[in-house]
Write a structure and sequence with these properties.
Number of domains: 1
Radius of gyration: 24 Å
Largest sheet: none
Shape: elongated
Number of strands: 0
Low-confidence stretches: none
Distance between the termini: 80 Å
Order of helices and strands: HHHHHH
CATH architecture: Orthogonal Bundle
Helix content: 40-55%
CATH superfamily: Tyrosine recombinase, N-terminal domain
Strand content: under 5%
CATH topology: DNA polymerase, domain 1
Length: about 150
């Protein structure tokens, strides 16, 4: 009976799909084509998981479940999805739910409390060559490259 009079949070009646469409309309205007393409890719994965979920049913636990499930998914090359990619998707989800909070559809954003993956662990460590390593490379290099390297 209360739903007839639309009492309570609007998020009890709205689905994630509906809010993601609203997000596209409000957020994608004025963005570069490649940026929009990237956001749409993030949204497609989010819609697969949250699609018909009511906004008020999206919890910290369900966002963490998405994060962990998405991270474990294999890519086309049989690796797992990088944490950085999942982090971008979580940021997209956070923006959608921030918009829902701003418009009073839900009281708080559950995605704001979810911890992201540490991206530094996935990047190769850069280090300086030791003098001995540099000399070894120069000795092994052909003469024409030794001259080019020594003069630069």
């Amino acid at each position: 009976m209360l739903a007839l009079f639309k009492v309570g949070w609007a998020g009890e009646r709205m689905t994630f799909d509906e809010r993601s469409a609203e997000f596209e309309r409000s957020h994608f205007a004025g963005l570069a084509e490649n940026t929009v393409k990237g956001h749409r890719a993030y949204l497609s994965h989010l819609k697969e998981f949250f699609g018909e979920s009511k906004l008020n049913r999206i919890t910290v636990e369900s966002v963490e479940e998405y994060r962990n499930q998405r991270r474990a998914q294999p890519t086309k090359t049989n690796r797992t999805i990088k944490g950085a990619t999942v982090n971008r998707e979580l940021e997209c989800l956070k923006c959608i739910l921030d918009l829902a909070v701003k418009r009073s559809y839900i009281p708080e954003n559950p995605a704001a409390a979810v911890k992201h993956f540490n991206e530094l662990r996935e990047r190769p460590v850069r280090r300086m060559l030791a003098v001995e390593e540099e000399l070894g490379i120069l000795e092994a290099a052909p003469p024409h490259l030794r001259v080019a390297t020594a003069s630069s």
